[in-house]
Structure formats: C-alpha cells, structure tokens
Specification:
- The chain is globular, with a radius of gyration of 20 Å.
- The relative contact order is 0.16.
- Strands 1-2-3-9-4-5-6 form a 7-stranded mixed sheet, sandwiched between helices. It has a two-stranded antiparallel sheet with strand order 7-8.
- It has helices at about 5-15, 20-35, 45-55, 85-100, 120-125, 180-190, 210-215, 225-240, 275-290, 305-315, 325-334, and strands at about 65-70, 75-80, 105-110, 130-135, 155-160, 170-175, 200, 215, 260-270.
- It is an alpha+beta fold and about 325 residues long.
- Strand 5 (about 155-160) and strand 6 form a beta hairpin.
C-alpha cells in the first residue's frame, strides 16, 4: 500500500476516534515515519493500541494542553493525557523555538503517553542546526541491577546533531538489549527473539517472545545499562512531574488510567561555543571513517546513516502490511 494512502487511512481512523484533524495528521506522520525507517515496533503495530486507549478514555482525544513559561529558554508542558505524538510534537517545536531565540531550549512534559521514536523528534531539531538530547520513560520491562522485579522501562536515550551533510547524526537507543516493540511484533507474529535479550518469569533465558513479555528484558552492559535506565527515569519522570519508579502503565495491557509518561527535550545551537562547528564535525566524522576497518566492513557508519538510507529506500516502495495488522485496520475502519 502506498505511503500517502496509508497515512490518509490512519488520519481518518484517528479522526473517527475523536482526535482533531491536525492531531490526527501529527500522529499519522509519526507512525508512517516509523514504518519507513524500519522501526516496525513503533509503527502500524501500535495503532490499535492507541485507539483502544482512546476508547477506554485513558487517552484524551481533545486535550487542553497547558504550557508554563519558566524562563526565556525553559517551558513545562502539561499534556492533559493527550496522545504522546501531539505532546512531543509541541514540545520539540517549543524547544527549537527557545534555542533559536536564546541559544538553549529545555522543555519538560508530564501527563503524556507513548510518542513513538525519539529520533523522529531529534531530526526536527537537527534540521534547524541544533544539537538535541531527548529522554522519555516507559512501562516496567527491565529489572534494576540486583533486583528480581521489573521496574525500569526500556527508557530510550536520544542524541542528535548536525553533520555538515544531509544525513544527521541520530543516536536513538533503548537501554535494553532489544526494544520492547520488537518483542511485541515477534509475539504477534509467533516468531522467536534473539538469545541473550530476555528472561522468562522464572528467570531463565528465553527466545520465546510471549514468555519474554511476561518476564524480564535484559539491559545493555549489565549494571551500566541499569544505571542509564535509572538516569532516564529521573530525567523524564522525577524531574518533569511524570510517573516514575515503575508507575508508568503498560499501554497494551493496563487500562486502569492514563500513563502519565514524562519527556524531556533539550536543544541548543550547534555553534554556541565554536562558530566553525560544521568544519569541526566534518573533520571528526572524516577522521573516524578513515580508520582501518575489520574484515567484512566496507564503511564505518555513524548513528543515523543506516536509518537515513532505509528511509530513502522505503520511501520509494509500498509499505508491506502483515496480515495481523491488516485485520487491525479493517476493524478500526469499521
């Protein structure tokens, strides 16, 4: 199915569930972007979940979002339980505005929901010649180091910066060995997951996606990954007024109330300290790419390059929709 056709379909579905036309378009754009960059766990596979949460009145389709001005560079947003795409879109645009005006922008968000890919918002800032750091927390999936119970989310860490070329540097990574969206997609399609990324509820290694969802995901780098997850929980939860310490509700399984996810967006001008930033970043990347390569490696890639190439390639193709997702769309269209 063509990108534009699917985007229009998603927009109509969100409007059917009560979102405004503008909010529907914002949400559809984010979902399609996830499909185009190959992050299927954040794309169409989540559409039904968002609509279910709207139907259960734990996502507010017509939010009254409040923006509190802290200073010329800082704002605090109460998203009023809006769909996460809308809150994040507003927040990154506000952070960009602050940075362009003062050199630095910081926007905290509370009472939001899952917003898809952090890198999608980072790209918006990088296109304005800004460097950005983005944090958000998530439902319990990872046990703190030394604990037997899940508490931290897969809590992604995102960094973006201009490179002096059309391909931005975007590092968007969860603190878990594999992101939860991939496990959910595998579970829905009855596929296995890689070894070494999760334990079942009894603490035994598993490649069964369904058992992994009921068990524990493993963090990157042992206690270091656990520490990074904790850091993100503080920055996006404690600091912002969002839920934290394991209180973020699972969007697929827990309809007892809103998620109240917190986000933190930090942006600043790339040439804030050195006016020849573009020259310096080009030198940095060129130097690293010239390093001797191990066997089988044609090019040393920086974060964001592969995703950029996937996007360009997929933009020219039709989006392939698995049968299970087609059933979702048929149900949602009604």
């Amino acid at each position: 199915m063509r990108n534009r056709k699917i985007k229009n379909l998603i927009t109509k579905i969100f409007q059917k569930f009560g979102l405004s036309k503008d909010h529907s378009k914002i949400s559809a754009n984010a979902i399609i972007n996830a499909e185009l960059v190959g992050a299927y766990g954040h794309g169409l596979s989540r559409l039904k979940m968002y609509c279910d949460r709207i139907s259960k009145k734990v996502i507010n389709p017509r939010p009254k979002i409040k923006i509190k001005k802290i200073s010329q560079s800082i704002s605090h947003i109460d998203a009023n339980n809006s769909i996460g795409f809308v809150a994040a879109d507003l927040a990154i645009k506000k952070a960009i505005f602050h940075a362009q005006k003062t050199g630095l922008g910081m926007v905290a968000v509370k009472n939001s929901g899952h917003y898809g890919l952090s890198g999608y918002y980072a790209e918006q800032a990088v296109r304005k010649n800004l460097i950005t750091l983005i944090f958000t927390n998530a439902p319990p999936a990872v046990a703190p180091y030394g604990a037997l119970k899940t508490l931290f989310g897969t809590n992604p860490i995102c960094f973006g910066c201009p490179t002096g070329s059309k391909i931005p540097f975007i590092l968007d990574t969860s603190i878990s060995m594999i992101n939860r969206g991939k496990i959910r997609v595998a579970a829905r399609n009855n596929k296995s997951i890689p070894a070494g990324v999760a334990l079942d509820k009894f603490g035994k290694p598993t490649i069964d996606a369904k058992k992994a969802l009921a068990g524990v995901q493993l963090p990157i780098a042992s206690f270091r990954g656990s520490g990074l997850a904790w850091m993100v929980d503080i920055l996006s939860g404690v600091l912002t007024g969002g839920n934290h310490a394991g209180r973020v509700k699972d969007p697929f399984d827990d309809f007892s109330g809103p998620q109240n996810i917190g986000h933190l967006f930090i942006t600043f001008k790339a040439d804030l300290f050195e006016k020849n930033y573009n020259q310096r970043i080009k030198d940095n990347i060129k130097t690293i790419k010239k390093l001797p390569k191990i066997k089988g490696v044609k090019e040393i890639m920086y974060p964001g390059q592969n995703k950029f190439f996937r996007y360009k390639k997929n933009l020219k193709k039709e989006i392939s929709i698995p049968d299970v997702i087609k059933k979702d769309l048929e149900t949602l269209v009604g």
